[in-house]
Design a protein that fits this description.
single chain; two-stranded antiparallel sheet; 9 helices
């Protein structure tokens, strides 16, 4: 049996591998989890002894096949729970991350199956993140580009929004910047603000927030919907 903390580390490494590539440095894991580097080093030793990670001196760590499977299962639990909390328990999408973090380690396979069935086996969670299938094959986590990578005049469709900051999520919801929405970049300030047009209104987003939003090019039918709105 793995502890909740061990599973949190595996999940963090999984996310960082997909966002930034492997191997993942100890300091990056410490920053992601808000812990000290010595604490990370100690935990990586334990995970390595269990065959869940492989470490390369001076370079970092990456998940083994077994470690990845554990991480993907935790991610599946987390994203299914987020979807269930929003769709069936009337949670706001800014509230579900912490609840899912607390519950993801403690649900049975039967509970997981029933939640998935109640939701109709969804492909994405409320924030647009792909939900791994029951076979625990890692989903494609790297689709799209970041909003902060786009310039003035680009029209894009919001695909995914990071779920880690509740205040950011509440702000984006009020601004109408949610998965499925088409936005047009109207200005990129030299001091870190990205302004977008959303259904006729302009919203200014800090660069750090724009960096957390994944987008894809708007298709012609998406552009028509925006014009009609």
């Amino acid at each position: 049996m793995l502890s909740d903390v061990m599973e949190d580390y595996l999940k963090a490494i999984y996310y960082l591998e997909r966002d930034e590539g492997a191997p993942v440095g100890t300091s990056r894991i410490a920053e992601y989890l808000d812990v000290t580097s010595p604490t990370v080093t100690s935990m990586l030793d334990s995970l390595g002894e269990r065959g869940l990670v492989e470490r390369e001196k001076y370079k970092g760590v990456e998940l083994t096949a077994e470690g990845e499977t554990v991480a993907v299962e935790v991610v599946r639990h987390h994203r299914l729970l987020e979807a269930y909390l929003t769709e069936h328990l009337d949670y706001d999408w800014s509230e579900v991350h912490e609840e899912a973090d607390a519950l993801e380690h403690h649900i049975s396979e039967e509970f997981e199956r029933r939640v998935a069935e109640a939701l109709g086996d969804p492909e994405v969670d409320p924030h647009g993140d792909p939900i791994p299938g029951a076979d625990l094959t890692p989903p494609d986590e790297g689709g799209g580009t970041r909003l902060d990578q786009h310039g003035t005049g680009d029209r894009v469709r919001v695909e995914r929004v990071s779920d880690r900051d509740a205040e950011e999520l509440a702000y984006l919801q009020d601004a109408g910047v949610v998965p499925g929405t088409v936005v047009e970049v109207t200005d990129v300030a030299p001091f870190g603000m990205v302004t977008v047009a959303v259904a006729g209104d302009e919203q200014s987003l800090p660069e750090s927030v724009a960096r957390s939003i994944r987008v894809a090019p708007a298709e012609e039918r998406d552009e028509l919907v925006v014009e009609e709105a």
